Amino acid sequence: MNTGVIGLGDMGSGIARNLIKNGFEVTGLDLSADRMAAFADMGGKPAASAAEVGANADAVFVMVMNGDQAKSAILGDGLASSMARGGAVILSATVRPREAREIGEALAEAGLNMIDSPVSGGFPGAQGGTLTMMAAAPDEVLDRFAPAMEAVSANIHRVGTRPGDGQTVKACLQSLIGAQFSATFEAAALAAKAGVPGQVILDVFSTSSAGCGIVNNALEKIIDRQFEGTGSHINTMHKDLTISMGLGEELGVPLHTAAAAMQIFHAGRSRYPDGDNWVCTRVMEDIVGAELHRSEARPRN
């Protein structure tokens, strides 16, 4: 099975690397020349267009930023125009459920399969091949393309059979993760103002009932003051929460904690637009006048 990857950023580059590592031929595309060069260095075959990726692949992972980018890569003169009938587009980007349904309908008309499979695990999961996939497609399609998906993931959950099913589960997940992040940022600011060292907070939180990957990882980044370049840009989470809130509005479901998280991420993105998720803590530290470091809580002058 030949594969392709469109979008070779923090997430897509990891998917490509693990496909190559597992013996797949990978054709890839990204708008960045630097990313394309890095992809070639790892053994990938750079393409000049999405159509060229499709012409050389049986299954293509699409890992772009949003629904508009996904449509551009897949529809029109993109993958749908060049992939052989029976191939699969694996939509691993996070988009609105209705956008996934629209893409799925167009692919079906072209005789192609759509695997709606957003992922969780972030930069470490993508690079390490340990992503969690929320995969929606008929079982026979998932069975056929499982080898490619297994090469990049540790957990493949079959969450439905229709385009949009995977994105719906991802929207529910991100509403929870946004709330977990926001509560962690608030607790960190509280500890900073109270004078509790970051290591103490991490030791207690990580071994308590509140400890989990989201909380522990965020605290590590906060107390080491790693607010940029960690592979978790704030724009991505802001976009995901926008999708979650939109689904809640569409279905008439109140999302109180997700709404609060949305505002926290909006504030973080406005104040520190180049930061990663954890930079939201700095907004709260700006307000309380204290910073949480690993060895100490440090008042600001």
What does this 3D model show about the protein?
The protein has 301 residues and is α/β, with parallel strands linked by helices. The protein has 2 domains: 3-162, NAD(P)-binding Rossmann-like Domain (Rossmann fold); 168-299, N-(1-d-carboxylethyl)-l-norvaline Dehydrogenase, domain 2 (Orthogonal Bundle), CATH 1.10.1040.10. The chain is 53% helix and 15% strand. The chain contains 13 helices and 11 strands. It has helices at 10-21, 33-41, 50-55, 67-74, 97-109, 122-128, 139-150, 165-194, 198-206, 213-223, 234-251, 256-271, 280-288; strands spanning 3-6, 26-29, 45-46, 59-62, 88-91, 113-116, 119-120, 131-136, 153-160, 290-292, 297-299. A 6-stranded parallel β-sheet has the order 3-2-1-4-5-6, sandwiched between helices. Strand 10 and strand 11 form a beta hairpin. 50% of the residues are buried. The model has no long low-confidence stretch (mean pLDDT 97).
Layout of helices and strands:
Blueprint: E1 3-6, H1 10-21, E2 26-29, H2 33-41, E3 45-46, H3 50-55, E4 59-62, H4 67-74, E5 88-91, H5 97-109, E6 113-116, E7 119-120, H6 122-128, E8 131-136, H7 139-150, E9 153-160, H8 165-194, H9 198-206, H10 213-223, H11 234-251, H12 256-271, H13 280-288, E10 290-292, E11 297-299
Parallel strand pairs: 1-2, 1-4, 2-3, 4-5, 5-6, 8-9
Antiparallel strand pairs: 7-8, 10-11
Helix pairs in contact: 1-6, 4-5, 8-10, 8-11, 8-12, 8-13, 9-10, 11-12, 12-13
